[in-house]
Amino acid sequence: MVVKVYGPVYASPKRVLVCLLEKEVEFETIPVDLLTGENRRPEFLKLQPFGSLPVIQDGDYTLFESRAIIRYYAEKYKSQGTDLLGKTMEDQGLVQQWLEVEAHNFEPPVLNLVRQIMFSSFYGLTGDKKVIKESEEKLGKVLDVYEDRLSKSKYLAGDFFSLADLSHLPFTNYLVGPVGKEHLIKERKHVSAWWDDISSRPSWKKVLDTYGLPF
Amino acid sequence: MVVKVYGPVYASPKRVLVCLLEKEVEFETIPVDLLTGENRRPEFLKLQPFGSLPVIQDGDYTLFESRAIIRYYAEKYKSQGTDLLGKTMEDQGLVQQWLEVEAHNFEPPVLNLVRQIMFSSFYGLTGDKKVIKESEEKLGKVLDVYEDRLSKSKYLAGDFFSLADLSHLPFTNYLVGPVGKEHLIKERKHVSAWWDDISSRPSWKKVLDTYGLPF
């Protein structure tokens, strides 16, 4: 059964795409245009009642929320492709921990920067300078913790690439690209080496080459 | 080994406490006073570098982020106490999905209401009426989705109590209590029945009776 992934050009669905490539699971993508409100149409809301991306269909099984989907496939195909969960229960706990950190500490300030810089620019507007400054400071503190952590282990959850690292790919890609804040990564030695490592994985390059950015 | 749980009077650590009770895992609690900044002290930051609660110590294993901790114990003691993960891989995927919905759709507007109403009142301030109105509207829409979902299955992930339901306990308890927005739950028949069911579990009653609220 080929997995259907909705909305491949956007950031969160790319978490799912890179995970499926790492797990060697076949998929096809279905475009959803947020700009024309396709995500608010009744047929989409039947799949994802909050109107968010991504959502997947795998036979008659429907699942949404990118971090739930990547957990599902990492578990379902544990022994196929790259192991993204860790070998021991304790390693798996740390993968979950850093996946939560990505969601609650890392993504919110990056998302603010994406909205204020990248989206504003697309609409010909100027972003809110106060929000930009505060978000950058907040993100800097989060990355200081990452720098310390990555000075002790090659990846966030330990010496193995996992869902926790993978989950950072889409929004860090915005950060170092269209948002123009690459220095936040580059000025931290271990964070920079980690980013070079994870962003050069063939799976991620393929996702970017195939699906690009929304605008 | 008795699990040490830091900061039992606060909301997020209560997710961990109720989970450990459901899983019949022995624990002890260590108070952390956020009002005096105990969470910013170096010895605490060694355990949780972001200065957030909760954090647990289980022998020499340290883990933070409440939803990572509850996943870890639900998995580690899968066949002990209440099964909080679901039987099939697909059920487990839905548990993860609704746990993410709780984190990303449900908690943010509730947290705004907690800050603007409960915390403001504690400090003798008046909350921001615009934020309160917007958060209540946002939460109402989320609860409309819950109402539809809970008209089809007894609990969020299916006909079994899971981490997804459990994770709602601490902040919904604020919402119907000190925040004074019980009507948002009561005016939705299925959400109301679900709340009555999950909040009357002996594990949750014990957590509230033993650790109360922070102020």
TrEMBL record, chains A, B:
Name the reaction it catalyses.
Answer: RX + glutathione = an S-substituted glutathione + a halide anion + H(+)
Which positions fall inside the GST C-terminal domain? 88-215
Which Pfam families does the UniProt entry name for this protein?
A: GST_C, GST_N
Q: Which CDD domains match?
A: GST_C_Phi (cd03187), GST_N_Phi (cd03053)
Q: Which GO terms describe its biological process?
A: glutathione metabolic process; toxin catabolic process
Task: Report the PROSITE patterns cross-referenced here.
Answer: GST_CTER, GST_NTER
**What's one GO-annotated cellular component?**
cytoplasm
Single GO MF annotation: glutathione transferase activity
> What's the top EC group for this one?
transferase
Q: Which UniProt keywords apply?
A: Transferase
- Kindly give the InterPro entries that the UniProt entry links to this protein: Glutathione-S-Trfase_C-like (IPR010987), Glutathione-S-Trfase_C_sf (IPR036282), Glutathione_S-Trfase (IPR040079), Glutathione_S-Trfase_N (IPR004045), GST_C (IPR004046), GST_Phi_C (IPR034347), Thioredoxin-like_sf (IPR036249)
Q: Family assignment?
A: Belongs to the GST superfamily. Phi family.
Q: What is this protein called?
A: glutathione transferase
